[in-house]
Amino acid sequence: MSALLWLIPAALGLGLMGLLAFLWSVRSGQYDDLDGAAQRILIDEDAPLPDQEAAAEARDGEGTGEKS
């Protein structure tokens, strides 16, 4: 029974902290653009990878000491 005397206030305190963190995130705009992140992952901004044959030729010529 004595454990409930500190478990109940601890649970209420943690719940209040979670509520305050949620309200802070709403006020700071964390949930303003929910579709932007979903669209951003589909945009490919990286340069295309080099052709496999060109990469193989570059590897064959390197490190062998041969000059062509």
TrEMBL record:
Pfam families in the record: FixS
Biased composition (Basic and acidic residues): 56-68
InterPro entries: Cyt_oxidase_maturation_cbb3 (IPR004714)
Chain segments carrying region Disordered: 48-68
NCBIfam families, per database record: ccoS
Entry-linked PANTHER family: FIXS PROTEIN
Protein known as: Cbb3-type cytochrome oxidase assembly protein CcoS
The organism of origin for this protein: Hyphobacterium marinum
Organismal lineage: Bacteria, Pseudomonadati, Pseudomonadota, Alphaproteobacteria, Maricaulales
